[in-house]
Design goal:
The complex is a heterotetramer of chains A (about 250), B (about 300), C (about 110) and D (about 230). Chain A is about 75% helix and about 5% strand. By secondary structure, chain A is mainly α. Chain A has one domain. The longest helix of chain A is centred in the middle third of the chain and has 38 residues. Chain A starts with 7 loop residues before the first helix and ends in a 6-residue tail after the last helix. Chain B has two domains: about 220 residues, P-loop containing nucleotide triphosphate hydrolases (Rossmann fold, 3-Layer(aba) Sandwich), CATH 3.40.50; about 80 residues, 2-Layer Sandwich (Alpha-Beta Plaits). Chain B is built from twelve helices and 13 strands. In chain B, the strands form three sheets. Chain B has a six-stranded mixed sheet with strand order 5-6-7-3-8-9, with helices on both faces. Chain B has a four-stranded antiparallel sheet with strand order 11-12-10-13. In chain B, helix 4 runs antiparallel to helix 5. Chain B starts with a strand and ends with a helix. Chain C has about 110 residues and is mainly alpha-helical. Chain C is elongated, with a radius of gyration of 18 Å. Chain C folds into two domains: about 60 residues, Arc Repressor Mutant, subunit A (Orthogonal Bundle), CATH 1.10.10.10; about 45 residues, no CATH class. Chain D has a five-stranded mixed sheet, with no helix packed on it. In chain D, strands 7-8-2-11 form a four-stranded mixed sheet, with no helix packed on it. Chain D has a two-stranded antiparallel sheet with strand order 5-6. In chain D, a hairpin with a 2-residue loop joins strand 7 and strand 8. The chains are: A mainly alpha (about 250), B alpha/beta (about 300), C mainly alpha (about 110), D alpha/beta (about 230). At the B-C interface, helix 6 of B face helix 2, helix 3 and helix 4 of C. Strand 3 of chain A pairs parallel with strand 9 of chain D, so a sheet runs across the interface.
Chain lengths: ~250, ~300, ~110, ~230
C-alpha cells in the first residue's frame, strides 16, 4: 500500500482547526467570565473622593481593566488545561507528532488571545452603555480614537498571549512531573516571602516594572515577543521528550 | 518490503524489563496476530511501534524510520484500542469528518456505511458510549482510515459475539479489497485464527516464535492413551501440556516432529493422535507451569 | 486444511469439471472469511498433488485426471485410516472377523438400495 | 517609532477583519453549529453594537475644553489672581466668571459685608471713580478641572444678598458631586501616560470682586478680609 508523505505545516493546520472545533466550549467560558467581570466592574474600576470648600466630589472610574484581568486569568487557565493528558491524547488519536501538537496548541492559544482581547476591549463599551442606562448619571468619557482603540487591542493581545505562554510552560512542567504542582507555588510565594522579610523589593514588582511600566510601544512588543518565544520553545522541548498515552 | 523491524528491543518500567531484547519483523500487507498473556508487554510493544512511547534500548523501524515523534509514521499508521480518546465536545458524526481530514486514504462511504450498520447516532457523544459500542466505533475509525499500518490492540473488548463476527468479516473484506499491514493483538486466538496469516507469540518480553498460522496448526499434536503408552511413545520429547483422566489415561501435547509412518503406527500401540487447537497451543506455550489449573487443586 | 478437502469433494461431486476454473484465493477467502494466504496454501497443496494446475495470470484450473487422483488418494489414506480404526474398535469389542465382514456387507446393501 | 504606531493599528485592523471572516468560514464548515457558536456570535454582535452606539451616549463635549489640560492648571490660576489684584477683571478669561450681579440705587453711605463662610473668604474691592450708587459684584471661580474635564459649571456660585445695609455672601449648601468618568484600559494607559490614581484637579475656590461707588464706606464683618485695589 503506497505511503503518503506529509509536511508539518499541513498537519498543524488540520490540527488547529480540529482544536478549534474540539475546544469551542472554552470560548463560552470566556463569555461567562467576561460577563462576570462586567458585573464586578459595575461599581467602577476605581473611585476617588475629594473635597473643596463647600463641596465634595467623588468620581467613579469605569474601564475594561477588570474584564481584561479576568480574560488574562481565563487565558492562563486555558493554556494550562490544553497541556493536560486528555487534551494531548486527543491529538495522538489522529495524525500528529509532538512538535505539530505543540504548534497547533500555540496557534490555538493565539486565536484565544485575539478573540479574548477584542471582546475584552469592546466589553468596555458595553460597560459604558450599561452604566448609562442603569445608573442614568451622565458619563464623561474621552472618546478614545480609533487608533488608540486598535492599539489597545494589539497590546492586550500581547498581554494575553504573554500569559498563555507562561501557562503553557507551567502546564508542561506539571505534565513532566506532578511534583511541580507543589514546587511552583512554594517557589513563587517562598521568594515573595523571603524578599519581604529582607525588605527587598519583591521580584514581582520588578517584573511589573519591566513590562507594565514600559511606555515605548516598540520596546514593549520586543520584550513580550522574546519572552513568549522563550516560554514556548522551553515547553516544546520538554513536550518533545514526553511519552504519551501510556 | 519490511514494514516493521525490531532488533533487541527493550523497554523497562520501574526496573522491570517488560520487553527484553525482542527482535522480529513484519512483512508488508500481512495480517499478523500478536499473542501473549496479559501484561506480557503486547500493548507496550504496540505503543512503541505507534510512536507513543520510547524504547529503552534496541532499535525499532517502522516504514524504515524511528516511529517516536515521526509524522510520517503517524500519518501512515493508526492505533486502535479502547483508550482511544476523542474530544468530548465533538459528536460522533463530526469525528468521522475530522478523521476524514486527517487520514489521506479515508473512505467516507465505508465509514458512513459501518456507522449506520451498527446504528450509531451522529449526534451522540463518544464518552457516553458503552464499552462494546466504544470498541465498535474505534474499530470503524481504524478500518475506514485504511492506513498502510493498522494496529488493533484487543479491539473486541466488550463487543458481543454478533458484532465480533461482523467486525472480523468487515476487516477481512476490506483487507481483501485494500490490502494493508494489520496487527491484531487479541486473546480470542480461536476466533481470529482464520483471519491471520502470521502469529507472533510473545513470552517474558521475548519472541517465543513467529510463524504462519498453517504451520502453527500442525506444529504440535495431542497424544491420548494409557499413561505408559503415551510416555514411551513421546519418548523424552518435551511435554508441553499433560492432563490425567480416569485411572491411567493421559493426554499430552508434544511438538509434532514424528515421521509419517511412526504416526500411523501410533494407534497400534493404543495411542490416539489428536490435532491441537492453535489457541490452546498458545496457552500451553505461554503458561508458566506445565500442568493446568487442576494442579493447584491436586497439590493440596 | 478444510479448503483443500472442500475443493476435492466439490470436484468429486462434479461442481468443478476438469479444466474448469476454480475459485481464486480471494474468492475463497471471501466465502469462508479466512485469510487469502491460508486459502492460497490450500490451493497450492492441491497443485502439488497436481489435482489443480495454474495458468499464469488466469488462476487455478482442475487438471484432467483430478478425479482419479483424489479417489485413490482418499482410498489409500482416508479409507485405510477409517478401516484401521474400524478393526481396532472391533477388536476392543471382541467381534470376530466374520461378524465384522457380515456387518460391512449389510451396510453395503443398505447403501446400494438408496 | 511613529511609523510603527501607524502601521500597528492597520495590522490589527486586518487581524480583526481576518478573525471575522475566519469565524464565518468556521461556522460554514461546522456540520452542527453548537450552542457555543450562537452564544459567541450574539456576544460579539452585542459588543459591536455597543461600540457603534457608545459615542452617542457619552458626553465628551467637555473633553474638547479639557484638551488644553496639557497646560499647567497652577500657572493659569496664578495668572487669575494677579489680574484680580490689579483689578483688570475684564482681561480674565470668561470661563472663570461664574456669576455677575449688580445692585443699583444704593443710597446709604456705608455698607457692611458679611459672609456665612466660617473660614475667611477673600473679597477684592475696587473703588470706582464716580458715584453711580450701584455696586457691581463679580464671582470668579478657578474652575473645577478634573482629569482635563472642566466641571466648573457643576459648582454653584456664591449667592450675594443685599438687605438694608448689609451685603451677605452665603455659600451654597454642602454640595456633593458624583461623576462617572471612563478611563482608557490599562494597556492603552500604559502608552498614553494617563493614570488612574492621582487625577489632576484644581481646588475650585471662589472669589468675590466688588466694584463700589467712590464714596461708599465698607465695614468688614467677622472673618471677612477685604482687599482694596489701587488702580
Amino acid at each position: 500500500m503506497s505511503l503518503t508523505s506529509v509536511n508539518l505545516w499541513e498537519t498543524v493546520k488540520k490540527q488547529y482547526f480540529f482544536k478549534l472545533k474540539a475546544n469551542i466550549d472554552a470560548f463560552s467560558s470566556l463569555i461567562g467570565i467576561q460577563l462576570l467581570a462586567l458585573l464586578f466592574s459595575f461599581g467602577g474600576v476605581g473611585s476617588v473622593g475629594m473635597g473643596g470648600g463647600n463641596f465634595s466630589i467623588n468620581i467613579k472610574y469605569y474601564s475594561a481593566d477588570l474584564v481584561i484581568g479576568f480574560t488574562l486569568i481565563w487565558a492562563f487557565v486555558t493554556a494550562i488545561v490544553i497541556t493536560t493528558k486528555p487534551y494531548r491524547n486527543h491529538d495522538f488519536t489522529f495524525v500528529t507528532n509532538r512538535l505539530s501538537s505543540s504548534l497547533s496548541n500555540i496557534l490555538y492559544l493565539l486565536t484565544a488571545s485575539i478573540v479574548g482581547s477584542i471582546t475584552a476591549i469592546l466589553a468596555g463599551n458595553l460597560l459604558k452603555i450599561l452604566a448609562h442606562i442603569l445608573l442614568d448619571d451622565q458619563i464623561y468619557s474621552f472618546n478614545t480614537g480609533l487608533q488608540e482603540l486598535v492599539m489597545g487591542i494589539g497590546v492586550t493581545i500581547l498581554y494575553v498571549f504573554f500569559v498563555t505562554s507562561i501557562g503553557y510552560f507551567i502546564g508542561t512542567l506539571v505534565q513532566e512531573s506532578k511534583l511541580f504542582i507543589i514546587l511552583i507555588p512554594v517557589l513563587f510565594f517562598g521568594i515573595l516571602f523571603l524578599e519581604a522579610s529582607m525588605q527587598k523589593e519583591p521580584f514581582l514588582i520588578n517584573v511589573f516594572k519591566f513590562y507594565g511600566m514600559e511606555s515605548t510601544l516598540f520596546l514593549f512588543i520586543i520584550k513580550v515577543i522574546v519572552t513568549v518565544a522563550v516560554f514556548f520553545t522551553a515547553a516544546i522541548s520538554i513536550l518533545n521528550r514526553m511519552e504519551v498515552r501510556r | 518490503m519490511r514494514v516493521i523491524e525490531c532488533t533487541d528491543l527493550t523497554k523497562t518500567y520501574l526496573r522491570k524489563n517488560v520487553l527484553d531484547k525482542l527482535s522480529f519483523s513484519i512483512e508488508e500487507n500481512k495480517i499478523t496476530g500478536l499473542i501473549g498473556r496479559n501484561g506480557v508487554g503486547k500493548t507496550t510493544l504496540l505503543k512503541i511501534i505507534a510512536g507513543f512511547i520510547k524504547e529503552t534500548s534496541g532499535q525499532v523501524k517502522v516504514f524504515s524510520e524511528r516511529p517516536y515523534n515521526s509524522l510520517n509514521v503517524s500519518i501512515n499508521s493508526i492505533f486502535v484500542d479502547d483508550q482511544m480518546s476523542f474530544p468530548p465536545a465533538i459528536p460522533l458524526g463530526e469525528i468521522l469528518t475530522v478523521a476524514g481530514n486527517f487520514y489521506p486514504n479515508w473512505d467516507r462511504e465505508l465509514a458512513k456505511g459501518l456507522f449506520d450498520y451498527f446504528s450509531f447516532d451522529p449526534k451522540s457523544y463518544h464518552n457516553r458510549l458503552s464499552k462494546g459500542k466504544t470498541s465498535t466505533f474505534n474499530m470503524i475509525i481504524g478500518l475506514a482510515s485504511r492506513c498502510p499500518l493498522t494496529i488493533f490492540d484487543e479491539p473486541t473488548t466488550g463487543m458481543d459475539a454478533a458484532v465480533r463476527k461482523d467486525f472480523y468479516r468487515a476487516l477481512l473484506k476490506d483487507y481483501i479489497a485494500y490490502p494493508r499491514t494489520i496487527i491484531l493483538s487479541s486473546h480470542h486466538l480461536d476466533e481470529i485464527e482464520d483471519l491471520l496469516e502470521d502469529v507472533l507469540l510473545i513470552k517474558d518480553g521475548k519472541k517465543h516464535f513467529q510463524m504462519s498460522i498453517s504451520e502453527l496448526k500442525e506444529w504440535a499434536i495431542g497424544l491420548k492413551g494409557t499413561t505408559e503408552e503415551v510416555l514411551n511413545f513421546s519418548d523424552g520429547k518435551e511435554i508441553l501440556f499433560k492432563e490425567y483422566f480416569g485411572l491411567n489415561t493421559m493426554y499430552a501435547v508434544v511438538k509434532n516432529d514424528f515421521s509419517e509412518p511412526l504416526l500411523n503406527k501410533a494407534h497400534l500401540v493404543g495411542v490416539e493422535i489428536l490435532p491441537v487447537q492453535s489457541s490452546d497451543l498458545c496457552v500451553y506455550l505461554t503458561s508458566e507451569t506445565k500442568g493446568g489449573i487442576d494442579d493447584v487443586f491436586n497439590k493440596r | 486444511m478444510q479448503i483443500a478437502d472442500w475443493i476435492e469433494s466439490e470436484i468429486l461431486n462434479g461442481h468443478f469439471e476438469s479444466d474448469g476454473k476454480v475459485y481464486s484465493q480471494y474468492q475463497l477467502a471471501e466465502m469462508y472469511t479466512i485469510n487469502p494466504a491460508t486459502a492460497a496454501k490450500g490451493l497450492n497443496l492441491l497443485v502439488d498433488e497436481n489435482i489443480l494446475y495454474k495458468k499464469r495470470g488466469l488462476g487455478m484450473f482442475v487438471s484432467g485426471d483430478a478425479k482419479e487422483i483424489i479417489i485413490n488418494k482418499r482410498k489409500n489414506q482416508t479409507l485405510k485410516r477409517l478401516v484401521r480404526e474400524l478393526v481396532l474398535e472391533a477388536n476392543r469389542l471382541q467381534i470376530s472377523e466374520i461378524e465384522l465382514i457380515e456387518m460391512i456387507k449389510v451396510a453395503n446393501d443398505q447403501e446400494a438400495e438408496q | 517609532m511613529t511609523v510603527l504606531t501607524a502601521i500597528l493599528p492597520l495590522v490589527i485592523l486586518i487581524l480583526i477583519f481576518g478573525v471575522f471572516i475566519f469565524m464565518v468560514r468556521l461556522t460554514r464548515k461546522f456540520a452542527t453549529p453548537k450552542v457555543t457558536h450562537w452564544l459567541l456570535f450574539i456576544y460579539i454582535g452585542v459588543l459591536l453594537l455597543g461600540t457603534v452606539f457608545v459615542p452617542f451616549i457619552i458626553d465628551d463635549s467637555l473633553s474638547q475644553k479639557g484638551m488644553e489640560k496639557a497646560i499647567d492648571t497652577d500657572r493659569e490660576l496664578s495668572g487669575l489672581y494677579t489680574k484680580l489684584n490689579e483689578g483688570e477683571i475684564d482681561q480674565i478669561d470668561a470661563k472663570y466668571l461664574m456669576k455677575e450681579s449688580s445692585f443699583s440705587n444704593y443710597q446709604n453711605q456705608s455698607i457692611r459685608v458679611e459672609s456665612s463662610n466660617n473660614d475667611s473668604s477673600q473679597i477684592f474691592v475696587e473703588r470706582k471713580a464716580n458715584n453711580d450708587d450701584t455696586i457691581e459684584a463679580f464671582i470668579f471661580g478657578n474652575g473645577l478641572i478634573i482629569d482635563g474635564y472642566d466641571f466648573s459649571r457643576k459648582l454653584k456660585p456664591y449667592h450675594l444678598e443685599l438687605m438694608k445695609n448689609t451685603l451677605t455672601i452665603n455659600l451654597p449648601q454642602q454640595q456633593d458631586i458624583n461623576l462617572i468618568i471612563t478611563k482608557a484600559d490599562f494597556p492603552i494607559r500604559q502608552f498614553t501616560g494617563e493614570s488612574i490614581i492621582n487625577p489632576s484637579f484644581s481646588t475650585g475656590d471662589q472669589v468675590v470682586y466688588l466694584r463700589i461707588p467712590n464714596h461708599l464706606e465698607l465695614i468688614a464683618g467677622n472673618h471677612v478680609f477685604l482687599e482694596f485695589i489701587e488702580k
